[in-house]
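Task: sequence design from structure.
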């Protein structure tokens, strides 16, 4: 009986995956059907399953976020009753933000007024953390790679400072951010895409059992 349930789950996952893949590839593209009669109708019908499934996924994610917020408030409400300061601040901040957003008809000026100083403070902490990390690297691993790391870090950090005397470093900093960092970011995104494809193929082949609960 258990094997039948596993086979049924794998069959449903495989069918839904193949249907979604076909719908995404062939739906809303009547030019792929050439001169076939009713090409636009067929393209619209094939696009329907993917649209419905993606909307269901979006709805599920939205409900999950709401459940997460409710759970977060529930946990901090319990801690707030025990007079934990940070939980009380979190609940008060959430309530005030919701009140501001609802009464000001979606005005996000409060969010910007709070978020910008916090981002600036985090950037300052990041600067100090990077400097400390560079010092530790040179202390524990004083080789060419450690020296390269510290040199690049110093150039990028100093190049972001709005000082006229650091204009030459700013050009090097922009080059490092555009070329090496851009290439690394694209490589990471490519790896994520390949990992997603591999995970999808494993589910379609029935090798991934995560959908069985």
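Answer:
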């Amino acid at each position: 009986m258990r094997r039948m349930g596993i086979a049924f789950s794998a069959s449903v996952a495989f069918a839904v995956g193949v249907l979604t893949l076909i719908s995404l590839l062939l739906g809303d593209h009547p030019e792929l059907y050439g001169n076939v009669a009713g090409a636009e109708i067929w393209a619209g019908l094939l696009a329907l399953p993917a649209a419905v499934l993606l909307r269901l996924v979006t709805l599920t994610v939205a409900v999950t976020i709401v459940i997460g917020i409710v759970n977060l408030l529930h946990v901090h409400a319990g801690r707030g009753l025990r007079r934990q300061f940070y939980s009380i601040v979190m609940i008060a901040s959430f309530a005030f933000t919701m009140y501001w957003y609802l009464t000001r008809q979606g005005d996000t000026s409060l969010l910007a007024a709070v978020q910008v100083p916090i981002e600036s403070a985090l950037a300052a902490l990041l600067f100090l953390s990077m400097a400390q990390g560079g010092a530790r690297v040179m202390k524990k691993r004083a080789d060419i790679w450690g020296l390269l790391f510290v040199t690049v870090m110093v150039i990028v950090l100093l190049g972001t400072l709005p000082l006229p005397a650091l204009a030459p470093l700013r050009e090097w900093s922009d080059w490092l951010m555009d070329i090496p960092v851009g290439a690394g970011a694209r490589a990471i995104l490519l790896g994520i895409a390949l990992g997603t494809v591999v995970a999808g193929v494993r589910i379609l082949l029935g090798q991934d059992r995560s959908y069985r609960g």
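Residues 1-80 form one domain.
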